[in-house]
Amino acid sequence: MSLYVLVLVYNAMLTSARISHELAFKSVKCLIEEGYQDIESLSKNTWQERTEVLTRGGYTRYREKTATALGDLADLVNEKYGGNLNNLLDDANSSLARVRSLLKEIEGIGNVGINIFCDTAQGIWPCLAPFIDPRSMKTAQQCGHDEDIDAIWETVDKDPERMCRLAAALTTVRLEKKEKEFA
């Protein structure tokens, strides 16, 4: 599961930047193909190698800054969490507020990235549920869903995996500007 959490951090880091979501997703895919979902692999690679992987994914605008942030992430995970990002959840005592606070220590992840992470991680870290990114909550309202997170949580039978899938679907609808198709 540690591998998944690291990939979700990459996703949050790259998709929260001011680039197209397609390029961000392609770059995350390149990081995975390079084996960077393993913190040990990420730690062993140089800044130049990380920059090349990001470039291959089309992530050219912020590649140098992001390559540095990925190196800093590897250092943080190894030094503070013993090489396993699941230890962040343990350090947070499964508290959403504390998880958010600890995620802010990761260079390259701000509030938007943290919201993206919480949307996607609630499927494997159930204590984060129910969560829907505020931007996706607006999309939910445009698509006719209740604006009350607890009501939506009831709709998915309080299942964190279903909540994660709903949050992802809402994000996709928002990014592809298809709200009118579901209203």
Task: Write a structural description.
With 183 residues, the chain is mostly helical. 67% of the residues lie in helices and 0% in strands. The chain contains twelve helices and no strands. α1 (2-15) runs antiparallel to α8 (111-121). It is globular, with a radius of gyration of 16 Å. The N and C termini lie far apart (36 Å). The model has no long low-confidence stretch (mean pLDDT 92).
Q: What is the gist of this entry?
A:
This protein is mostly helical and 183 residues long. Helices cover 67% and strands 0% of the residues.
What's the topology here?
Layout (H helix, E strand, L loop, with lengths): L1 H14 L5 H13 L5 H6 L2 H10 L6 H19 L4 H6 L4 H8 L7 H11 L12 H9 L6 H7 L4 H16 L3 H4 L1
Major sheet description: none
What is the SS-derived class? mainly alpha
What is the number of helical segments per DSSP (H or I, 4+ residues)? 12
What is the radius of gyration? 16 Å
What is the total tally of β strands? Answer: 0
Low-confidence stretches: none
User: What letter string, H or E per element, gives the SSE order?
Assistant: HHHHHHHHHHHH
Distance between the termini: 36 Å
Determine the strand fraction and express it as a percent band.
under 5%
Shape descriptor reads: globular
Keywords, please?
183 residues, mainly alpha, 12 helices, 67% helix, 0% strand, globular
